[in-house]
Amino acid sequence: MAYSEEQEMVLRRAALASLILEQRQEEFDRARRTENKLSDVEEKAIAEKVREATSGAWHWARNYTKTYNQHWREQGRSTPYEPFPDWAFFPIVLEHLEDDSEKVKLFEKSRDMMVTWIITAYFTFECMLVPEREVIVQTMTDLKGYQVIDYAKHLYQSQPEFLRQKFPVPKPIEKQANNEFMVGSSKIWAIPSGQGKIRSYHPWGVFSDETAFQPEAGIAYDEARAGGVKKIVLNSTAAMSWYFDFTHDAETT
Amino acid sequence: MAKTPLQTALQKLNDVPVQFPVPVIRGVNIRAKKNGLTVMSLHYSAVPGRDPETEEGAKWFKKENSGYASQAMWKKEQEMDAYATGGEAVFNAVLGNPALYQMVVISDPHWFPDPRWDVVAGFDHGITNATCLLKGYVPRESWDPVTGQKNPTELYLCGEFYRYRSDEWTNNVDENVLAMKQMHDMERARWILADPSIFDDSQASDEGAPTNIYQTYKKNGMWPMKAYQGVRSDVSFVEWVMSDYWKGIVRGRKPRLYIVCRTLSDRPQPGLHQYDCPNLLWEMRRAKRVQMTSRQLLTRNASEALENKNNHAMDTMKQISGALRSPTEIPGWEGVDAELEKLDPTTRQIRARFVMSKLAQEGKIDFQTGQPRKGKGALSIDLRRAPGVMPGRREG
């Protein structure tokens, strides 16, 4: 069954709301049963757990967070919230993204491969671990950008309590704007396609999703490069476009 | 420490040409661009349950593949073939449909135009952009033996010269003319239509008076050309190709426009193609409408215009097809003659005065000269009456 963009948005909001309720219950239970102050041993144990959970992007994505799936019922799943599937190409994508020898990463893909999810996971993980990371997500429209931000929020919220406490958000997730996700002093925010949108920003990372369908994507890419961005990730399915010409070294006349 | 599959693949990239895909794992490959950047390609077969070589994957493939509206869409969305749909919604309905593609594109290597057919051509000048000469063949007038009606004009686009500036080609007028003069059948071309801007006196010359680009071509021995005066709108061009030349071909009607191409490619093939149009087809398959940003779409309708890029062969096609499509204007005096032929000599005298004044009142002939008037933007092309060779080239 296919959902419209608005329906998908409602479902995502419902999913987020249910997670938030769960967390509040956890907080309530903890307040009733445990002391706020932790002993050194407990703190050390938690630090060890955090270190283990964040030892690698793939390790974290696979074991300490969850994605959501709007089609879970039709696909016979027991829950809409599941960890990233154990697909062999996910760690390869993350290894490629983590490699700093080249700042531009170009992806082309078949449909429905969860590539946007895994790239969002990479940027969310970076923002949690490294202070003052700024990442811009550029998509065809604002609404599509909000979806990527929702992915990031969901990945953050789906983590166990000890990770959320270790990497707190400056503002409760439900109070953060649709177009931004803030964690610690880092943030990811969404902008629509088009030239001039990235100008005046100097983010650490730019994630252009479905680049082949974005008008003026070539100009936006040049603007990102000129802005000193350290990680530029372009991802798209196939379409006759600037992105197609660019990735294929196509001659134009 | 052992290398990861990605590290191994990246190392192999040093030993293969650019754009050569190196497999990382099943369904994932990586290739290098000219500028050294790498492109990672993620095919659905990388997902365990979708690898068609497995039983589960074969089932998935069968189910998903049959669910798409067309194989072209499947190829585009899942096989990452951007060309599959043959141009974004412009010529897609025909070029993206394998059965219709077969109808309008002649790929038989043994096909050649009938030597009795008329030759026409379109020309687009460019220096940094491509220079293009497109050759078309128009079969002679024929009548349906059953209905007795005249068959509609057909056009076979078959032959092109396509060159743009590159390391090995400066794309200057002189070298282009030399190459174009090698094109077969052009010596008997009825006409060559060119972009009107090359006839404007906009080029500074040594003598002082400004000259035009056409003069430069002429000096270098190019055949005489005429300025195209027909409709220049891209939107109309697409419309007349799709709904006129290719009208009803879905229902089995014979197309009136054919493109000859035996060497289809996903990149331009600069050079002289005597009986082939690979670059025209390349452009048509890439044709797309102007994309607008979400902000622009808030206040404007989506654009119908085509992107003004990679459209040089299409411009020449527009000139040829647009010219042939315009109804031929029969000179006024011929109309009068035809009218009077049926009458006896006495009535003819009286009738002639009446017919002449009627034509003059309708603005079809000039009162003074009796010659047809040149209407604004009207294009008068009559293949039947054109001289056997180009004006000024009547030799032997």
Average pLDDT value of chain A?
91
Form type of chain A: globular
> Span from first to last CA of chain B?
81 Å
| Content of β-strand of chain B | 5-15%
- Please provide the count of β strands of chain A: 8
Q: Largest chain interface and its two residue counts?
A: A-B, 43 and 57 residues
Number of domains of chain A: 1
Largest sheet of chain A: 6 strands, mixed
Helix/strand/pairing class of chain B, anyone?
A: alpha/beta
Order of helices and strands of chain B: HEEEHHHHEEEEHEHEHEEHHHHH
Radius of gyration of chain A over all CA atoms, rounded? 19 Å
Distance between the termini of chain A: 43 Å
In CATH terms, the superfamily of chain A is: P-loop containing nucleotide triphosphate hydrolases
SSE string of chain A, helices as H and strands as E: HHHEEHEHEHHEEEHEH
- Helix content class of chain A: 40-55%
| Class inferred from helices and paired strands of chain A | alpha/beta
Descriptive tags:
heterodimer, A: 253 residues, alpha/beta, Rossmann fold, six-stranded mixed beta sheet, two-stranded antiparallel ribbon, 8 strands, 45% helix, 15% strand, B: 396 residues, eight-stranded mixed beta sheet, three-stranded antiparallel beta sheet, 13 helices, 14% strand, globular, disordered C terminus
Characterise this structure.
The complex is a heterodimer of chains A (253) and B (396). Chain A has 253 residues and is an alpha/beta fold. Chain A has one domain: P-loop containing nucleotide triphosphate hydrolases (Rossmann fold), CATH 3.40.50.300. Chain A has 9 helices and 8 strands. In chain A, β5 and β6 form a beta hairpin. The longest helix of chain A has 29 residues, at 5-33. Chain A is globular. Chain B has 396 residues and is α/β, with parallel strands linked by helices. Chain B is built from 13 helices and 11 strands. Chain B has helices spanning 5-12, 55-67, 71-77, 92-95, 98-104, 173-180, 213-219, 234-245, 278-286, 294-299, 312-325, 332-341, 345-361; strands at 22-25, 28-32, 38-42, 105-106, 118-124, 131-138, 155-163, 189-194, 226-227, 257-260, 271-273. In chain B, α8 (234-245) packs across α11 and α12 (332-341) runs antiparallel to α13. Chain B is globular. β3 of chain A pairs parallel with β3 of chain B.
